[in-house]
Amino acid sequence: MELVILIVLIAVALVGVVGLVAGSALRGRTRRGPIRPGPDSSGLDAGAASPGSATEVAPGASPGLAAGAPPAVARPGGPEPAAEPAELAGQAGAPGGATEPAEEIAPAAGGAVTAEPEIVSPRAPLEVPAPAMGRIVRLRARLARSQNALGRGLLALLSGDNLDEEAWEDVESTLLVADVGVAATAEMVDALRERTKVLGARTAADARAMLRDELLAQVGTSMDRSLRTSAPDRPAILLVVGVNGTGKTTTCGKIARLLVAEGRSVVLGAADTFRAAAADQLETWGGRVGATTVRGPEGGDPASVAFDAVKRGIDDGADTVLVDTAGRLHTKVGLMDELSKIKRVVVKQSPVDEVLLVLDSTTGQNALTQARVFTEAVDITGVVLTKMDGTAKGGIVIAVQRELGVPVKLIGLGEGPDDLAPFEAEAFVDALLGEPA
Ligand SMILES: Nc1nc2c(ncn2[C@@H]2O[C@H](COP(=O)(O)OP(=O)(O)OP(=O)(O)O)[C@@H](O)[C@H]2O)c(=O)[nH]1
């Protein structure tokens, strides 16, 4: 009997021990399992995304993002991207290249809020833009609106039988009204007078050919209008500057769209921290075209965001970094100083390849005043003339180039994503003159 009781007690004790061991093993598994996939999970790399986002990896990542850029990770908008760099910063010593940039970009805990960038990786691009080449021709119809003031008006005058003094005055005022500028107008009128004297009687075709020559001479056919969007062994850096509302953010998005379509990887820097909507707008472009967007908190230091964006581009091995700056009144000295600072800060990491001044072509002579002041603050390397679809004053191209000594490289021809064209002198002049009669 005593033996039976002993056996029963031992059996109960064994069951208890087995139960305890199994229970603790189960608890251990539950704790380790779902937290993070490992130190490589940057959250900026589709292959190492957090478990929650792993299912969101876009299967058809853009070919434009292939070379060293973060693969397209479709993230829902909202707070998730903001949380990620901060989380990563907390993983001290986490190895893996993709993790490091986020650690460096994100400030130490308790750091100033202005130093905290937000990096939004692109969604898989859904849109394929029309090719850049030939856009200016495709959009001739829109440009042709300007021919009333410039091309058509001049052609009517020059092919008329009576080219008297009054007619020449009309030629002059037509050029001035079209914003060609005083000096260029005087040169053109002199040249046209000379040629009509030599030519004598003129047909409409003669007048057109003569005017085309003179306009081309003023617009310039030998300037280097190429956009420097690549650099050896580093990303090309482009700063986009200008006064409020000229179309800087839209232009950044349109350029990024073109570059990604050509197979380049692009980082967008939302250094317009004055207006939260501007960063949202840029981020939307980034999401649409497949570019990573780096942004900072509203009211933060724009130079810091520009710095972070360039760093991000370098770390990712991106081809191009486009930094959108806030619109600033050229009359505000403090804001112009801030622009110089943005450039100085960027240059600490990389040379700046292009500083694009975005001018609204509908603002006429005021655009020239802006151009002058901006050139003093930062060396402008190229001009983007936007809203050419809304002006009858194509002459601004001539005036701006003369004023700045830098070429117009791009023109905006509408609000649509493909309404940006590389500036081509001949196509532009032909569009001003319209179809031959
Ligand atoms: N018609 C036309 N509208 C344009 C063109 N480019 C830009 N816009 C419009 O101009 C408005 C201002 O464009 P944004 O890109 O927000 O201008 P911004 O310079 O970034 O503005 P701020 O950040 O406030 O300085 C928007 O409604 C654009 O759609 C263009 O070439 N043609």
UniProtKB/TrEMBL annotation:
Q: Which organism is it from?
A: Parafrankia irregularis
Per the record, the GO terms for biological process are: SRP-dependent cotranslational protein targeting to membrane
Might you report a single GO cellular component term?
Answer: cytoplasm
Q: What keywords are assigned to this protein?
A: Cell membrane, Cytoplasm, GTP-binding, Hydrolase, Membrane, Nucleotide-binding, Receptor
Q: Where does GTP bind?
A: 242-249, 324-328, 386-389
Q: Which SUPFAM superfamilies match?
A: Domain of the SRP/SRP receptor G-proteins, P-loop containing nucleoside triphosphate hydrolases
The protein's location, in the record's own words, is: Cell membrane; Cytoplasm
Mind listing the GO molecular function terms for this protein? Answer: GTP binding; GTPase activity; signal recognition particle binding
| Top EC class, one word | hydrolase
- Enzyme Commission designation: 3.6.5.4
**Gene name?**
ftsY
The protein's name in its UniProt record = Signal recognition particle receptor FtsY
Q: How does it sit in the membrane?
A: Peripheral membrane protein
Is Hydrolase set as a keyword in this record? yes
Q: Where is the SRP54-type proteins GTP-binding domain?
A: 407-420
